[in-house]
Each structure stands twice: as C-alpha cells, then as structure tokens.
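User: I'm preparing a small set of examples for a lab meeting where we compare how different chains pack in three dimensions. I only have the primary sequence for this one, and I'd like the structure in token form so I can line it up with the others. Please keep the answer compact; I'll paste it straight into my notes.
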Amino acid sequence: MAKKSTTKTDAAPKKSKAPKKETKAKKSFEQTLWDTADKLRGTVESSEYKHVVLSLIFLKFVSDRFERRRAELVAEGKANYVDMVEFYTMQNVFYLPEDSRWSTIVKQAKQDDIAVRIDSALHAVEKSNPSLKGALPDNYFSRMGIDVAKLAALIDSINNIDTVADEQGESEQDIVGRVYEYFLGKFAATEGKGGGEFYTPKCVVNLLAEMIEPYSGKIYDPCCGSGGMFVQSVKFITSHSGNQKDISIYGQEQTSTTYKLAKMNLAIRGISANLGEVPADTFFKDQHPDLKADYILANPPFNLKAWRGADELTDDPRWSGYDVPPAGNANYGWILHMISKLSESGVAGFVLANGSMSTSTSGEGAIRQKIIENDLVDCMIALPGQLFYTTQIPVCLWFLTKSKKARQVKGHSELNQRDRVGETLFIDARNHGTMVDRTHKELTEADIAEIARTYHAWRGEAKDGEYEDKPGFCKSSTLADIQANDYVLTPGRYVGAAAIEDDGIPFETKMNDLTGTLYGQMEEAKKLDEAIRKNLEALGYGK
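Assistant: Understood. Below is the structure token output for the 543-residue chain.
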C-alpha cells in the first residue's frame, strides 16, 4: 500500500510547510502511542496482544463516529430518533448500545470485570450491526487474563487518539486508519515470521497497486490477511481522483483472528467487501467459485508445504490445461488459482519467493513453461532483500494478464495499452530501496514511481512517455528469448549489466595513476613489515 506527492500550484510553497510539520507530529504521536501500548503488554504474546489493542482502537473509533452522529441528530431537532439504528446506518455509522460506547468503557476501566465488559460491548456492537458479522473478537478479553491496571492504562492511552478531522482535511477514517495501519506494521515487526500471516510491507503493497492501477471493476485477494491490498487499492483510486463506488472487493482468509482483523480494518475505513461468510481455506473452500476478477493483488504464504492439493484436488478445474501443482510447495497452486480467477482482460500482481521464477522441481518447471507459452506473463520484477519482517528469503513480483492485445480503458484514455502479444517485461530492482534500520529496507516513493512508470510506458500508456530498455534495470523480451533461457523468469538473465559511464579520462592516464597508487601502497607495506619484524625481535622472537 504509492503515496502521491501533492500537486503544486502557484500558492503551493506557502502551504507545503504546514503538512510536513503536521506529518512529523502525527508520526511522533503514533510512535508514542505504540510505545505506551507495548510497555503495557507485560507477559502477553505480541500475536495475542495485537487483537486487544486493535479491537480497542476500533471500538474507540466507532464510538467517536457514533457520538458525533448522535449530536448531529439532536442539533437537527431529531432527539427522538437518537436510538433508531437506521439514522446511523444511512450515514455509514455503526449504532452502539449504551454499554458499548467508549465513554462507558472509560468510566468502567478500573473495575475488576472490565475485560468481561469489553467483550460484552464488542458482542453488542456486532449484534446491532449485521455488516460486522464475524468481525469482532469473541470473549477474547476475558480469556486473556490481562492485569486490570494494565488494561485500564491501555484504555487511557487509546482514549488520547483524537479522531476529529484535522485542518489539513484528513478525515477521522484517515486518522484512525493510519494509526491502525501503523500498529499492524509494528506488530508484524515484533512477531517476525508469524507477522507474515496478516501483514505485507506497505511499500510492496503500494508498488502492486501502482503497477496494476485498479480504477474500476472487481478486485480480489485469495489470501487477504488484514486487508492491506484492499486498503491500498482504495487509496490509489482516491489519490487519482477516481470513485470508490466503481470497484467491488472480494477476498478470503483462512485464519479466524486474521479474518477479524481484515473486517475491522476495512470497517474503520468505510470499505465494503465480501470476504466470504467464514474464514476458510481458499483451495478447499473457495467462497467465490464463480468470480472473474479484473484485478488480483496477493501475497500468498511463501513456499507453503503440505498443502494437500496434489493429493486431494487432483481433478480440480483450476489446474485445467496444466499439471497438478506439487504437494511439497503451494506456490504454483496459488498461481493457477489466480489465473483461474482472472477476467478476459484481467491482471494479477502477486508476491512469491524467488525460487518460483526458476524451479523445475516436481513438475513446476513444466507448469511455468505452459504459463509462458500461453503468453500470460506480462512483467517480472526482482525485489531487493530485507523488505519483509517475516523472512529473509529473496522475493519477486509476478504480473500476469489474460490479454496483451491493445486495450482501450473507458474513461481513462491515458491508460490505453498497446499490443504487446509475445512480449514480457523484466525489471531488476534489487539495487533499489533504502535501509530504514539495521535489518530492514523499504522502497522509496521515487523507487516505486520509477518501477511503475517503466511498466506503464512499456504497456504504451501515454502518460508515462516512451519505453526504452535500460541495461541492468529493464528489458523487453520475446518468447524466443525466454525459451533460449530454458523458461527461467529471473530478470537478471535478461536485463544484463548496467552500462558504465565514461568519465572522459584516457585509459593511459588512469593506468598511470593506478600504478602509482599501487607502488606507493607496496612501499608502505614494506615499511610496515619492517616495523613488525623489529617489534617481534625486541620481544625475543625471530632472529
């Protein structure tokens, strides 16, 4: 999930300073809130504690919106209607019974039964709002056994979140959504490998959305985690002056607690989505069997073993025309599942381990060859290492499409695409990104813009100019090129080495300078050797 820079106007210089200051203050606020919450965790595991914190943030947000809507009704002379659910839902506000309101929770925060009261509040919210069915934790707080004083302190900390729209035009949904997203990322970092079940690094999600440009149609994520792909798709639309009503969202998630995170994450932002009736395994209980998606964004579990597909789904129609994916690794099961879900002009962008680009194990090479021969591979991107909190495995992005023929995009002529049948773009972005701490790297806005612009220019989109191969970075290749490389899709095989710029210094001059430097270093080495020899002799060693 990429950020777009503010469009400059004549008055822009005067306005630009305030947002920067504001952003810094907000980041500090988010970090302070996280530090406070994390200190209160005590002995509770991060994987469990995130549900406590995120559920309370959700309850605080929906309560603030409820109270504002309630005040509006009173101000409009409709005090008699303040307890009618319809007057809230018509404004996309959740109705809250009195015992579920944040003000009530704050008053009761220091009581011994506060955990039970929070569980009851969440249950009542879900019961009063059918769209939240299955979204909120069920008797979670009472089972956690969190110290009452620590829970009260956490409630007090979250009570400091101000969800009133700010002067910069940021809505309450933006504010709380940003806090929610920040916490998801921090929990993913603290959980390590387990964090990958619910969180994809924001810069990777941003890149996926910028690449496939999901303006309108059906968006699908078969392993949606906490819903980050959907959030960024909506952000992409709004940042490009699109209409959120032009898309419909479908997803699925197997893990029950993560399924709830996704529902809360989307509800906070007012995003409607069909995530299936229940959390379920996409391979064995596909809850969108007839879906044909225009856009697919996904980050499937890397190299998922023992997924049982090869043993129990041997005749599955999703493998039609291909070999059955091997039992020891679900990577190609995910790929074929997504291909089966694409509409005739649909595009899929997803993350996989680097090995997926070259493996020939257990028939995977044969499946990849067929995918390539069917001309489905639009673009391959090698990403830099250390982007993920969850794994050090190098990863790549695949972009598949059902049609590479020239395409006119209704309402967005600047997105019209040229005929690129038989062509595939390779991008090697391994040298991109910036270290943000000792162990983790992020793609910058400039990195994301360069990669996405390269892809769009190659597709022929007028807004991104002419495409050119760039040694060491990008190369447009043909099917014959890929066949010559044994159907391996690793970008490094195609883009070649980066060109070395000529600095204008004659070779003879460079050689003389280098030789002089070498001789000087050799003389210095002789002096050091002599000094070491004398020191050893003085100590009684050697001659």
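A couple of notes for your slides: Residues 433 and 443 are 4 Å apart (CA to CA). The mean pLDDT is 87.

User: Perfect, thanks.
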